[in-house]
């Protein structure tokens, strides 16, 4: 696991390209960038947060389930993951949950 170093400006370009060409060829040609700079950095961010606040990190798939969707685009145009509490909360309470998402609209900080 790498250390969170932030999201490079090229991440926004990657998302914009995915929105413009949401196909297997585009994604396959840029998979290494996605794995390292998008998914890898999102997972590193959540891992650092879970180390500080506790919880288990879960990253979600980039590909969509298109079986029952009118939109047959194979990939999500955002990336997200979550960190949940390491143990169950008392009965009747909601477990602590943190979610982080990244899309072209927010990939500019």
How would you explain this protein's 3D organization?
The protein is of the alpha+beta class and 109 residues long. The protein has one domain (9-102). It has helices at residues 9-20, 24-29, 31-53; strands at 56-59, 79-84, 97-102. The two termini are 23 Å apart.
Helix and strand topology:
Elements: H1 9-20, H2 24-29, H3 31-53, E1 56-59, E2 79-84, E3 97-102
Antiparallel strand pairs: 1-2, 2-3
Largest sheet: 3 strands, antiparallel
What gyration radius follows from the Cα positions, in whole Å?
16 Å
Q: What is the arithmetic mean of pLDDT? A: 84
Q: What is the 3D form?
A: globular
Q: How many E-type strands?
A: 3
How far the N terminus sits from the C terminus, by CA atoms, comes to 23 Å
What brief labels describe this structure?
three-stranded antiparallel β-sheet, 109 residues, alpha+beta, globular, single chain
In short:
The protein is an alpha+beta fold and 109 residues long.
């Amino acid at each position: 696991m790498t250390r969170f170093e932030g999201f490079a400006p090229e991440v926004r370009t990657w998302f914009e390209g995915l929105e413009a060409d949401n196909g297997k060829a585009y994604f396959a040609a840029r998979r290494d960038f996605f794995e390292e700079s998008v998914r890898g950095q999102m997972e590193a961010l959540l891992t650092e947060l879970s180390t500080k606040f506790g919880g288990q990190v879960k990253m979600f798939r980039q590909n969509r389930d298109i079986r029952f969707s009118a939109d047959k685009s194979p990939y999500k145009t955002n990336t997200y993951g979550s960190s949940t509490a390491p143990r169950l909360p008392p009965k009747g309470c909601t477990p602590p949950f943190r979610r982080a998402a990244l899309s072209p609209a927010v990939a500019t900080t």
